[in-house]
Amino acid sequence: MKPIAVILLVLTAALAAGSAAIFGCEICRAGYDKAHRVITRQFPASRERRERIIATQAAQMKPGGAVILGDSIVELQTFDSLCGLPVLNAGLSGSTTGGLAARSAAIISAARPSLVVFAVGVNDGHGGKMSQGDEWLTQYRMLLRSAGTAKIIIVGIQPIEPGMRNSGAYDMAGIAARNRAIERLAAEAGAIHVRPMPDAAGMTTDGVHLNAAGMRRWQAKLASACPAVASASFTPWRAPADIARSRSSRTSRRGG
User: Fold this and answer.
1) Interatomic CA distance for residues 150 and 238, integer angstroms
2) How far apart are CA 178 and CA 123, in angstroms?
């Protein structure tokens, strides 16, 4: 791609994003989404740049805010605040549960939030069948442990809109099963669970990524958890295996 084409593409994305922010224009938002996908495809290094931006913003964030970790469904959104807290959007396109589990602790440690939102999983079923086994459960529990003493909101995986350009690339049945498991994990961890939209009809640009209406609906569902956040008490979460090891250690010490 020639340099002038790169400049024009970036300017188009910036203008479309600005228009969407000012007017809430769905057409403009769709234009930004398309430009973002083109840039990411043409310049793989943009993922590394995005990771550096997240790390820098986390380090600059005042303690006690909110961090939202997820994939492109999160990255492409703008959050003014959440539950009255300033927000770090730590969404990264292409993130899977395992990938996010590997980097979430560093982001959360740097940002020192009082509230952490996990909204990830759709990419686990991209291009194949979504695993429901122990490896995934281990990865998700790693995510939950990385929140430390912060309160946790877990958002279910966004359903796929049928009949759209990218719909066939995702495991729809696997997402439904995974969402049931996520709800059980939230109860196990004492986290606040936000169920995903029941369907995504008319809510996406390509079957997966949200359009302006979808973003408004997604954020409204997330905001509906704020009363529970305000009233929730929370102690650092440990996986059942951690608890078992702790009990075993105490028993061993008493026996000695």
Assistant:
1) 13
2) 12
Q: What is d(CA 90, CA 55) in angstroms, rounded to the nearest whole number?
A: 9
Alpha carbons 125 and 118: distance in angstroms, whole number: 17
Give the tens place of pLDDT for each residue, 232-245: 665 555 555 543 44
Secondary structure, 3-state, 15-51: HHHHHHHHHCCHHHHHHHHHHHHHHHHHCCHHHHHHH
- The model carries a pTM of 0.76
| CA 89 – CA 93 distance, rounded (Å) | 12
Distance separating alpha carbons of residues 196 and 159, to the nearest angstrom: 7
| CATH number, span 47-255 | 3.40.50.1110
Domain ranges of the chain: 1-43, 47-255
pLDDT digits (tens, 9 = 90+) for 97-143: 999 999 999 999 999 999 999 999 999 988 777 777 789 999 999 99
